[in-house]
Amino acid sequence: MDTDNTDNIASTGLRIGDTPPDFEARSTIGPVKLSAYRGKWLILFSHPADFTPVCTTEFVELSKQSAQFDRRDCALMALSVDSLFSHFAWLRLIKERFDIEVRFPIVEDPTMVIGRAFGMVAPKDNDSAAVRTTFYIDPHGTIRATTCYPADVGRSIPEMLRTLDALQAIDAHGGLAPANWTPGSSLLQPPTHDLDEVYSALDESGWFLREMPKERGE
Ligand code: BEZ
User: 71, 32, 33, 37: which is closest to 139 by C-alpha?
Assistant: First the structure.
């Protein structure tokens, strides 16, 4: 792993707009390198531990929805402190119990070097079971969104897809995704910085709360 500035990153955590440090690690599909995912979207997420109930439901649901992530040209990559062989045993159990094959890579991070560099584990925390962090990384390798849930609340896979859809829509069309935005509904225009536009707006909120004009064919 490129650890040049790892100490610094671990103490501050990674934020939206950052380029995360590259890493290479063993995973359930063989060695993976973060920078090899440039050119496509990537959701990199940590889970507290293999063989735990909430994590199992997340992996089952993510696997069921894997075609939805493929359709959005988005790869999934999971990570925990468990060993590769623990990951294998857990995936085998998921296959037997749910008839689901988890095909996205699960990285082993037994020393927590990646988890700490990404702020998935508190710098001084020895209990890796405290984190359920998700990074949405765009094709340029930039972090575009992050979420952090506690160990006892599972992530919403529809919300992960919606967040991805919103990021991809604003990249394609510009604008802003409002509350509860879903694909097909209107994006909003960024607020104006022009006082003349403020005064000439047709109604009171028209200068700051405006939908994007519909594109031809929409
Ligand atoms: C779970 O995924 O169910 C879990 C993980 C760590 C601690 C508690 C629950």
Answer: 37
